Amino acid sequence: MNMKALYFTAFKSILTKEINRFTRIWVQTLVPPAISMTLYFLIFGNLVGKRIGEMGGVSYMEFIAPGLIMMAVITSSYSNVASSFFSAKFQRNLEELIVAPVPHYVIIAGYVGGGVARGLCVGTIVTLVALFFVDISIQHVGLVAITVFLTAVLFALAGLINAVFAKSYDDISIVPTFVLTPLTYLGGVFYSLSLLPDFWQGVSALNPVVYMINVFRFGFLGYADMSVPLSVAVMVGFCVGFWSLAYYLISRGIGLRS
């Protein structure tokens, strides 16, 4: 077996393990996002949306649908890698993988691939749920696919980095609670940035989630609050930066070796 085949086998093994991990407990990993998003559609989309009317030239329900889908993808891809990678580190399984003749980028790709797979599965489920409440039409299929993939990769990498630095399971929940949730809710899921004063629009430009939801919504509705090329560039830049940081941490063994 040549080295490329060996590396691919290692990647496939890690990816398969990660996919089996979240599909085996699908009641805990795939069902809750569907229930949560159903409640969002009922409360914000149906009850509140009737009073708000249109936003961005479409009904409020149509406006928030892309943001809710993206929110589910972000949360799922992040939590999958954060919990799985930390569990492997906590149980000392990761040390065997690190010393194996497998490049570190293969290890990262395997775990991130598992997070992306869960993010895409949850995104698909939430999209199907959304169809019960609103007619969804996609104007730019390629842009939607690229955006959801880059977002899942970015937050899967963020989950891995969180797991590297985490000392206990409590540390895994700190970032989603105090960082991820505020960024998501302030990322334009439920409102258009054009409604904000100029100062707060400038502050919102510092939130990376804004760019992801902006491009994703444009792919569905053709409506964007910010430049689409800039938003894609920001996502790519964060992916490259997080990948580089994750590779540096794992190659140096930071937070992994006792």
From TrEMBL:
Residues 24-253 form the ABC transmembrane type-2 domain. Keywords: Cell membrane, Membrane, Transmembrane, Transmembrane helix, Transport. GO terms for molecular function: ABC-type transporter activity. The chain crosses the membrane at residues 25-48, 60-86, 106-134, 141-166, 172-193, 205-224, 230-250. It comes from the Bacteria. PROSITE patterns: ABC_TM2. Pfam families: ABC2_membrane. Its main location: membrane. It is found in: Cell inner membrane; Membrane. It is a multi-pass membrane protein. The keyword Transport applies. GO terms for cellular component: ATP-binding cassette (ABC) transporter complex. Belongs to the ABC-2 integral membrane protein family. PANTHER family: INNER MEMBRANE TRANSPORT PERMEASE YADH, INNER MEMBRANE TRANSPORT PERMEASE YADH-RELATED. This is Transport permease protein.
